[in-house]
Amino acid sequence: MIKNKKQPSKTAMLDMIRRGGIAFPPLTFRLLEAAPPAAAPNGIDAIIEGAWDAAKARFAVAAMALSTPKAFFTAISVLKASRLPDGCRPMVMMPFLAGDHLGELERSGMSGIDLCGNGVVIIPGRLFIARSGNKNCFSTYAPIKNVYRKNSSLVGRMLLSYPVLSSVKNAVETVGAFDTLAAAALKKPLTFATVSKVLAGMEQDLLVAREKGALRLLQPDVLLEKLALNYTQPQCAASIAVKVRTGKLPLEKLLLRESLAQNLPVMATGLSSVSRYAVMQRGEMLSIYCPGADDLLKRLPATASDRFPNLEIIETRDAEVYFDARREQGFCWASPVQTFLELMQGDKRDRETAQRIKTVIVDRVRTKVP
Questions:
Q1: Contacts of 24 (CB under 8 A, 6+ apart)
Q2: For residue 291, which of 235, 332, 339 has the smallest C-alpha distance?
Q3: Within this chain, do residues 120 and 245 fall inside the same structural domain, yes or no?
Q4: Which residues, listed in sequence order, are joined to residue 139 by a DSSP beta bridge?
Q5: Is 216 found in the same domain as 93?
Q6: β partners of residue 93
Q7: DSSP sequence for 15-35
Q8: Kind of pairing between the strands at 138-139 and 119-123
Q9: pTM, full prediction
Q10: In the listed set 113, 139, 165, which residue is the last one of a domain according to the structure?
Q11: What are 195-227's pLDDT values in tens digits?
């Protein structure tokens, strides 16, 4: 079995057919013509012949060297738009076909094979073969391993608030404007190269469209699902529960005053920010993120308390939790996206509330996208 190979080129894939290196029993394949002149302008890369027993069938192949959703649907579009040579059935060929790809091919009445042993071959009234479950044998090249996790997720979070941007430069500037830790000089802002690579990855996943340099978010609901799937709890240096004597000053005002005095970001966690976006009762204790818990505690009239604490300080320097903070009378609350992601880690009641916030986020995006 092929294992941990690099992504093959389109030419290499067609050479494998020429050498008889594509196995899909009981079918055997033979390359008849690569990029025939009459079909090449339409995007058809080869004509191949499939044989089983004494029967044969011909296929017009649209081959893709990448196994991304964008590559898959590009191949589908090529086959649908092309005038196929007489007697040929449409076929997609990729290094790897995932289960949802195979399902889409079957619904479309198209055939498809990969280099890992998966595929579906459809010849109406004559043959139907489906094979799935083989793992991807090829290492997928990606400049950033996961564009929906940690620092890379800032780009997706930004698009959920600003779904239409004029350029990559505009995206870089917008991410920087809402990166709270970068603004406080506690971390470096995302570079142009990083933002560009993340956008390219999202474009391959069909979440972002790029038209004459402008960027547009296509599927905010799917983006939220990917962010939730890849969300990890912030790395915490400490978590301290204290009782703060506030006097007549509201706790949020006291925290705002001390954070400004020290240029120290302070922001309510998503769970403590739920009431800003949905109806849900939470405990009376306020939980906050802060990159310097000890520095903040030194200026607060607080005592450590296991009984009836009114403040929890979570010390973390993970930029994503602070991103796109929402200010009310100066105090920072978590963004709707951060609140949604934290709720999705909770129990059934939390996740139900998260879905209501998700609806609010998606509806707002759709009002901004033409």
A1: 113, 117, 119, 121, 129, 131
A2: 235
A3: no
A4: 6
A5: no
A6: 63, 113
A7: HHHHTT--EETTEEEEEEEES
A8: unpaired
A9: 0.71
A10: 139
A11: 999 999 999 899 999 988 899 999 999 999 999
